[in-house]
Amino acid sequence: xxxxxxxxxxPFRFLKAVxxxxxxxxxxxxxxxxxxxxxxxxxxxxxxxxxxxFFRDPHIIPEYPNDFSSWVHTYLAEDAVAEKLANxxxxxxxxxxxxxxxxxxxxxxHLQAFSGxxxxxxxxxxxxxxxxxxxxxxxxxxxxxxxxxxILKDMDSDxxxxxxxxxxxxxxxxxxxxxxxxxxxxxxxxxxxxxDSFDPYLKSLRENHDFLLALIxxxxxxxxxxxxxxxxxxxxxx
Amino acid sequence: xxxxxxxxAPDKILSEISALAAALKGHTLQHVSSTRxxxxxxxxxxxxxxxTVSLGIPTTWDVIDGRQDFFEVTKSIHNALQGxxxxxxxxxxxxxLAHLAHNSGRIEPAADVVVVHDPQPVFLIEYFPxxxxxxxxxxHIDLSRPMPAIWRFLRPAINKYAMAVxxxxxxxxxxxxxxxxxxxxxxxxxxxxxxxxxQEEITxxxxxxxxxxxxxxxxxxxxxxxxxxxxxxxxxxxxxxxHFDCQLVLAGGSATDDPEGPMVxxxxxxxxAGDPDIFVLFQPTDLEVxxxxxxxxxxxxxxxxxxxxxxxxxxxxxxxxxxxxxxxGIPAQIIHGETGYxxxxxxxxxxxxxxxxxxxxxxxxxGARGREHVRYNFLITRHVRDYLLLMHHVMQNESERPVFxxxxxxxxxxxxxxxxxxxxxxxx
Lengths: 238, 428
Prior knowledge:
The complex is a heterodimer.
Chain A: H1 3-6, E1 12-28, H2 31-40, H3 43-56, H4 67-76, H5 79-86, H6 96-113, E2 126-142, H7 145-154, H8 157-170, H9 178-185, H10 189-197, H11 205-225
Antiparallel strand pairs in A: 1-2
Chain B: H1 2-5, H2 11-22, E1 29-33, H3 40-54, E2 59-63, H4 68-81, H5 90-104, E3 113-117, E4 135-138, H6 148-158, E5 163-166, E6 180-182, H7 199-208, E7 217-221, H8 230-241, E8 247-252, H9 261-272, E9 278-282, H10 286-295, E10 298-301, H11 310-317, E11 322-325, E12 340-343, H12 346-358, H13 360-377, H14 380-396, E13 403-405, H15 420-423
Parallel strand pairs in B: 1-2, 1-3, 3-4, 4-5, 5-6, 7-8, 7-10, 8-9, 10-11, 11-12
Helix pairs in contact in B: 2-14, 3-14, 7-10, 8-12, 11-13
């Protein structure tokens, strides 16, 4: 553990976000239209269609884990494309521009390879939405690992979703999830590395919540075993 | 009010309501609609207003008045917006506008946020240009295929609102230039139609109709309307019956403004005549619907066109697997393969019913997931939260920036990242 980091502890403020979906004027009824609209749609809209299932139901991970793959499967029956869109590498590509490029490449390669694309009816069009966010303060702040674990146990999974997905992808330029950022600041590099590298897209939000708790608890146990006590650090003043 | 829903609605939503409402304390909300009783809007407002009042947000509800000919015209407008081939004469349009001019003298949109419901009062905004930034148009109808002439008539007025609210994305017309947001309808878990019932009560009610609780029950609850495809449900049931000893219940009424309803009901009754396992129930009470849905093994809503489909929500809330037509708001509710199945034909419905009857454990798992899905997404508590969120967004009046609620510091929302709250996003 890096001693200098222990001297500048910043408390972790647990936040969460709620949103209303705003409907944009972008619509697609075929893969070529989807390609065109994905190229120009906002990052917020991309984010919405890649993550909204986490927030709609924290317990479910749908068969096709984002709106693009699900729509291509359900309404265009282009299952090979749907599978590729389900398999987007969202962990590696924290930058939504890279994700946009990956989606466009999948669609363009398919359109190039196959002629005679399928269309669905306007009633089944893919309609691009974006979130209108409100960020809420849960009023809980952790200054130590033990406090952090205690609060994380109490929190609902949307808080995890906020710090794991919303803050790094939409509200910051660092593009690192808040948990790993905080633990790295505190010198828990091993834990931060693991928080950076695990894939939250294969789990429901609730499963991610449980996974994070288990991971952090095990790190806490090893820290205590190593004799590190961070319960006495003074409060950070901005 | 929050305590009444504790242990029913998710704690997370109740805490979101508290947080959003605390920051709105003292601000006011006003609803304007066309009727105080009867119909879905009045039903939801009667449940919603006690909620916002209890949260410290003074809420008022104004109702426009008018002669019968005014409401005949608004009914025609309503139908035309939902796709019926109806024409409104210039004379009737003038009469409609004159009535709203009269109403503008008695209804003052004075609250911090004013929600105007459905098309009837939509033109009120013309009389209050200084209040436009606080006025929201809430559309409760299927606006996916409006008659062009009527839409051209209403659209300029709608475009003067700060925002429009729809049930599902397909209802949000592309040529509206104002922000269009989504708020799904909801059910109240404490209402007569959805409250918990004892098994003895369910059995008593169900058996009063001659239905056998010892054999599987498949039910569709909806108006006798061609778009609900009751004949398709009967066709699916007959295919299932070749393999399974089961019963079908078709329960519903007909809307007073739907002249086809009795005709469709008569057709269904004729088709079902002589089959002791098909029960056609006309206008059951809310309590009876509740008991029938709870007694069912599978709930069907095989619509070919649908607004939102709250009977799907009701079925899922009762822990049942739901098979629904892949139309309107139904795909927004059923997660195919997780909480039920989406189908496109009587054969599709028959196959899924057969599958669920032969795998009852799958139905139980789906039902449990469906109930949780409703708990998070379609209970009145989520609806209240969304209205509070709407108030925040309207009052902030900046579409491109998140609202920060509850004392989040302008800098420092993220650990070590001072940019977050102040800049809030790269490119909304």
